[in-house]
Amino acid sequence: MSATPLLDLVVLDCPDALALGRFYAEVLGWELEDDSDADWTTLVPPGGGVTPERRDGRTSLAFQRIEDWVAPTWPGGRHPQQFHLDLAVPDIAAAEPAVLAAGASVHEHQPSENGGFRVYLDPAGHPFCLVRG
Q1: Average pLDDT over residues 78-90
Q2: Whole-prediction pTM value?
Q3: What is the CATH number of domain 9-65?
Q4: Residue boundaries of the structural domains of the chain
Q5: Which residue intervals define the domain VOC in the entry (predicted)?
Q6: Residue 103 has what DSSP assignment?
Q7: Contact call for residues 89 and 125 (beta carbons, < 8 A)
Q8: Within 13 Å and on the Cβ side, how many CA atoms surround 34?
């Protein structure tokens, strides 16, 4: 047994965990864990449950409701993004309509000079990118 940790779960703070969980479930094609609610929601990646053993070491996403949620600002401002998710797709233009239909918006600031990524905001205001992968 190794003492090296596995990255098990990435947790995003938000105003409504169930709403944001549903957004990312639709975007990623993942399932919501059965006991998900507005305070805590966990996504189940394809082919596995939420324990590291059942996910075969794959990292999952969870969302927790924060009472005094303030959306991050990016590229600057009083509440910097602090992190973001990069979602790899073969074709950004082909993937964009589904992301927008799920509730994302295109960010006004697009720093990619070669079109290798595009910045969006999820419904809670977290920046995330579709990246050519």
Answers
A1: 88
A2: 0.86
A3: 3.10.180.10
A4: 9-65, 85-132
A5: 6-133
A6: T
A7: no
A8: 1
